[in-house]
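Sequence of Spore coat associated protein CotJA (Gracilibacillus thailandensis).
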Amino acid sequence: MSFTLTKCYSPFVSKFDPCKPVLTKCYSTPPNLYIGFQPNNAEQFSTAREALYAGTLWPCLYDPYYSKRGESSE
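Predicted 3D structure, token representation.
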């Protein structure tokens, strides 16, 4: 099953809007939405430092956040 962590949609644009229209809006979805349950013997980060940096013990639940400006948070 293929999925993306970023979803986009096109909101309604009125010709009476006073501001420049935003044609596409995007938002981030966490990976835990796509895992119905935690699998047995799920892989864990090898060190506590890596897990603390990622904010989770399991790499399959790690979600790297990228700002709207395109810069990574790392």
